[in-house]
């Protein structure tokens, strides 16, 4: 059959509160036109993030009932460890309360001030944890990965020539580890090919640089490898995953993504010396090594989630629903980042609203309009998020995007049809939209709390 269905039945439902445009105008005004300020019950379809927003399966909920909450040596930890090692064959696995805790532990042990950490694109918590230790985070994604319209199948790949040049310039003694993020969240959720992971692994081996994977969306990345990379069409997803991780020396993981749970993470590695040091930090800041920052029941849910996330029917449905929205938008002429990544659709707000200049925040205008028109909450990833400079000045970001992240197993095809209708209606009415200004902002990370209002007229129109 051609129709790809959700490979699950729904046993437990969560009502969505319906709202009118008038109500949404009031809610948005009360939130100072910042979507982070909304009460989530006033959002119809919440596409703010795919992190920690998955629906758990009946098996996961059942597993939670047998969670063993012993302080030390819990059988739930043993099941968690076995499930992780089944896919990521590392010697040591340390649970943490979420991904950034694993990053903090790893970087606090591995880096010293002035060290360089290359990645395809560092996620913001990864970068922040590196910079907190006064080390330097360098992004080396291929050039194609920076062009929203480029259809390269693995836009998350690392630029191998740039990695080699960086090592030659800085010296191996200043690069304590190299990372690669699968899929590349900050670069549009784009996948990395196995050939590229192998090439990075070989270079790291040659220079004796430990190689780590930021593993958050490993199953989605494996699915893209199976679909797009020559030679993997007949390999199972678990085998592709094992091949990926066998090429590295360890990984950090946020279980809030591809472990299908609402909270959790881990750090896994092989090195005995780093393990001992990381374990000491873990005990100090997260908890005893057989629970990290988690309850026994959380460990059970992760163990079961890891089994479910590599199921091909699940991945087929997940990727089809993202691609479906992307393809329909493309067919209607709506500018989006292509090809569609794993966990989100990224609308190119600069091309959507060319009459609004970057310093009038077209991404914020578009994100607010999707909420006003249909109660959809997305996230601006543009000048609001990246434009504020440490010296107080402001520059346009490289791209003005609105990310619509799709939570796992939460919304059905008709929810996606509704999302499409709202975006297409907004597209038809795009000329009437006005840019925004910031009325109040903090000195850093302004996108979370800044207050916005609409401009009377757009600067470009005034100039015209
Ligand atoms: C690629 C990537 N790395 C790390 C993290 C951090 O994980 P957490 O939110 O669990 O701390 C995220 C979260 O979105 C991510 O997308």
Which structural class best describes the helix and strand composition?
alpha/beta
Shape: globular
Q: Give the biggest sheet.
A: 5 strands, mixed
The proportion of residues forming helix, as a percent range, comes to 40-55%
Computed CA radius of gyration, to the nearest angstrom: 22 Å
Q: Identify the strand order in the major beta sheet.
A: 2-8-7-6-5
What does the average pLDDT come to? 95
Specify the number of helices.
17
Low-confidence blocks of residues: none
Beta-strand content estimate? 5-15%
Q: What gap, in angstroms, lies between the N and C termini?
A: 54 Å
What oligomeric state do the depicted chains represent? Answer: single chain
Bound molecules: pyridoxal-5'-phosphate
Explain the overall architecture:
By secondary structure, the chain is α/β, with parallel strands linked by helices. 40% of the residues lie in helices and 12% in strands. The chain has helices at 21-30, 58-65, 75-87, 99-110, 124-132, 160-170, 194-206, 218-228, 237-246, 272-285, 296-309, 312-331, 349-352, 362-374, 383-386, 413-428, 459-463; strands spanning 45-46, 92-96, 116-119, 136-139, 178-181, 211-214, 250-254, 265-269, 344-348, 376-377, 379-381, 401-405, 436-440, 451-454. It has a five-stranded mixed beta sheet, sandwiched between helices. The chain starts with 20 loop residues before the first helix and ends with a helix. Pyridoxal-5'-phosphate binds at residues 51, 98-100, 123, 125-126, 181, 185, 214, 216, 254, 256, 265.
């Amino acid at each position: 059959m051609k129709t790809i269905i959700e490979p699950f039945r729904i046993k437990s439902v969560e009502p969505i509160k319906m709202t009118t445009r008038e109500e949404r105008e009031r809610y948005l005004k009360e939130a100072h036109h910042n979507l982070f300020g909304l009460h989530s019950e006033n959002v119809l379809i919440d596409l703010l993030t795919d992190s920690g927003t998955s629906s758990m399966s009946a098996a996961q909920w059942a597993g939670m009932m047998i969670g063993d909450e012993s302080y030390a040596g819990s059988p739930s930890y043993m099941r968690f460890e076995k499930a992780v090692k089944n896919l990521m064959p590392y010697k040591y696995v340390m649970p943490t309360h979420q991904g950034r805790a694993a990053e903090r532990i790893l970087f606090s042990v591995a880096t010293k001030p002035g060290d360089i950490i290359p990645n395809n694109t560092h996620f913001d918590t990864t970068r922040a944890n590196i910079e907190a230790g006064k080390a330097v985070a360098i992004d080396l994604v291929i050039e194609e990965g920076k062009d929203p319209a480029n259809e390269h199948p693995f836009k998350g790949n690392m630029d191998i020539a740039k990695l080699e040049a960086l090592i030659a310039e800085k010296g191996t003694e200043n690069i304590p580890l190299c990372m690669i993020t699968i899929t590349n969240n900050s670069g549009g959720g784009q996948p990395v090919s196995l050939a590229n992971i192998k090439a990075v692994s070989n270079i790291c081996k040659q220079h004796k640089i430990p190689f780590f994977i930021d593993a958050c969306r490993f199953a989605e990345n494996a699915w893209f490898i199976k679909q797009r990379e020559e030679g993997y069409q007949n390999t199972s997803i678990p085998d592709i995953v094992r091949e990926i991780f066998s090429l590295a020396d360890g990984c950090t993981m946020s279980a809030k993504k591809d472990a299908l749970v609402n909270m959790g993470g881990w750090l896994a590695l092989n090195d005995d010396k780093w393990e001992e040091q990381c374990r000491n930090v873990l005990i100090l800041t997260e908890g005893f090594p057989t629970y990290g920052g988690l309850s026994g029941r959380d460990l059970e849910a992760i163990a079961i989630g890891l089994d479910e996330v590599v199921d091909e029917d699940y991945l087929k449905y997940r990727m089809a629903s993202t691609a479906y929205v992307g393809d329909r938008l493309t067919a209607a002429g709506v500018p989006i980042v292509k090809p569609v990544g794993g966990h989100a659709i990224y609308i190119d707000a600069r091309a959507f609203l060319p009459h609004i200049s970057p310093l009038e925040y077209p991404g914020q205008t578009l994100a607010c309009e999707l909420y006003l028109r249909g109660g959809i909450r997305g996230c601006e990833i543009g000048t609001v998020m990246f434009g504020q400079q440490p010296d107080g000045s402001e520059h346009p970001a490289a791209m003005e995007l609105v990310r619509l992240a799709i939570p796992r197993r939460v919304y059905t095809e008709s929810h996606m049809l509704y999302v499409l209708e709202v975006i297409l209606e907004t597209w038809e009415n795009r000329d009437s939209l006005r840019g925004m200004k910031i009325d109040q902002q903090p000195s850093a990370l302004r996108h979370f709390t800044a207050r916005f209002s609409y401009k009377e007229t757009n600067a470009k129109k005034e100039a015209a």
